Amino acid sequence: MSEASVIHDIGYQRYEGPRLGRGAVFNSLYVHGLRAAYGFGRSAKAKIFPWLVFGIVSLVAVILAAVRAQTGLLPLNYIQFADAMSWLIIFFVAIVAPELVSRDMRAGVLPLYFSRPLRAADYVGAKVAAMVTAVWALLAVPQFIMFLGAAFTAKHGMSDVWKELGDLLPAWGYSLLWALLFTSIGLLIASLTGKRAFAAGGIVAVFLMTTPVVGVLSILRSTDAQELAGLASPMTLVSGVGQWLVPDANTGLFIGRFGPVYLIEAITLIAGCLLLLLARYRKVASL
Amino acid sequence: MSTVAWITARGLFGRRRALLLLPLPLLLIGLAALCRAAGVAPSDWGVPVLVGLGLAVVLPVISLIVGTGVLGSEVDDGTIVHILTKPLPRRDIILAKLGVAVGVSALSSAIPLFVAGWLADSVGFGLALAVAAVVGAFAYSALFLLLSLLTRRPVLLGLVYILVWEGLLGRFVSGTRVLSIEQYVITIADKIEPTTLLESKVSLPVAVIMAAIFILGCAIASVDRLRSFSMAGETS
């Protein structure tokens, strides 16, 4: 080894084409995540659970639209519909969140991802965006079915349709809030373990254990405690924000004058979970 | 056989994973104590805490995580091969795994339910709840252990059972209650120590016989399934 050692150029052709940057990586992670959420590009077995949930939610929407078209009664409005589906949304989050993040940890691909021009924030952002889209679609498409049912049976033409649209758009925003809150909590829990089974169980446990807390707080004697009880559970937290922003939503939750508190907690919770998620991906283990 | 049980227990609890089982039972006791301290009548808080949290969430969810974890995580890792290739009867493997699962879920749900029941009514009611929770832990663990052998997604299928079958259908469609372990647990607790807090919706013979069928049937089916178990790769 007298001479300085060199790496010999053995004549392979070099890649000279365009190099796609962070944007392209983000985009493909997003598309991949969204497809994975509904099991596209996977075996039939991977499609069973997401489409089961989507099917049930759509079926309920179709039934509601049919009841309304036949009898003129409205059993559930758009916002009550989202609330009524809360258990199915929890189940959907428990299906999708482990699929998106736990799999990557399990397969040990994170060090490969992060050896690309991809930052932790891009990875987290793409996963969150994909899952928010998936959960939002789970609620928004059935709500749109209900809207179509109402629009085609409108008695007074366009004015009814406009009024209906005025109900639908806030409800889509409300569904987005559901999606944001449930995604950030669900992904945070799922990112802690590489085992999808444990991640799914953990997500359901966290969401379900908060409901009885609300039940207990709302039977305490103090009125303030009753009106603040909804803060204890993500489901009632979203309902409270909806009740405050859309007063004729009739969510059945009494929030008194604490509407802003609900909104602030919802925003803080989403931001906090996303920051923790970012912190989680500051360092990834390379098996 | 004891080695299998030991490995299983270590797989569940190694590296401080046991701490993850603590929050649910602590929440149950904490809520019961809070209600008691705030002077709310037990008839008001009994149902949401004992049934809504204790019997509908803590018992099934802990049994689900533990019951599918004892065998399912080894199937996922592929380490089940090491146990299957040992000269052990498959029955002993299943019994050891089931024993660990039942022990853990029974301990972590019966103790908080006993405390909460004691705070709500009397020591007798607490004991009745604890006994019923142990029966429930047996039935749930056997069911979820079987699920982890039948499918590669046992947790999701178990969640369908807990959330949809027992949670949604059990409330509205009375016929499904005959196949709902939660209802057996409620009935058994109510018949041991009758109170106004629990309302049993199936008869005691149905509850006891169906629980026994669940436990034995699922355990035997698991043994049978493990006899001809074929390994497969990661689910796609």
UniProtKB/TrEMBL annotation, chain A:
<feature type="transmembrane region" description="Helical">
    <location>
        <begin position="261"/>
        <end position="279"/>
    </location>
</feature>
<feature type="transmembrane region" description="Helical">
    <location>
        <begin position="48"/>
        <end position="66"/>
    </location>
</feature>
<feature type="transmembrane region" description="Helical">
    <location>
        <begin position="197"/>
        <end position="220"/>
    </location>
</feature>
<keyword id="KW-0812">Transmembrane</keyword>
<feature type="transmembrane region" description="Helical">
    <location>
        <begin position="172"/>
        <end position="190"/>
    </location>
</feature>
<keyword id="KW-0472">Membrane</keyword>
<protein>
    <submittedName>
        <fullName>Membrane protein</fullName>
    </submittedName>
</protein>
<dbReference type="Pfam" id="PF12679">
    <property type="entry name" value="ABC2_membrane_2"/>
</dbReference>
<keyword id="KW-1133">Transmembrane helix</keyword>
<feature type="transmembrane region" description="Helical">
    <location>
        <begin position="78"/>
        <end position="97"/>
    </location>
</feature>
<feature type="transmembrane region" description="Helical">
    <location>
        <begin position="128"/>
        <end position="152"/>
    </location>
</feature>
From TrEMBL, chain B:
<keyword id="KW-0812">Transmembrane</keyword>
<keyword id="KW-0472">Membrane</keyword>
<feature type="transmembrane region" description="Helical">
    <location>
        <begin position="202"/>
        <end position="223"/>
    </location>
</feature>
<feature type="transmembrane region" description="Helical">
    <location>
        <begin position="47"/>
        <end position="72"/>
    </location>
</feature>
<feature type="transmembrane region" description="Helical">
    <location>
        <begin position="125"/>
        <end position="147"/>
    </location>
</feature>
<protein>
    <recommendedName>
        <fullName>ABC-2 type transport system permease protein</fullName>
    </recommendedName>
</protein>
<feature type="transmembrane region" description="Helical">
    <location>
        <begin position="93"/>
        <end position="119"/>
    </location>
</feature>
<keyword id="KW-1133">Transmembrane helix</keyword>
<dbReference type="Pfam" id="PF12730">
    <property type="entry name" value="ABC2_membrane_4"/>
</dbReference>
<feature type="transmembrane region" description="Helical">
    <location>
        <begin position="154"/>
        <end position="173"/>
    </location>
</feature>
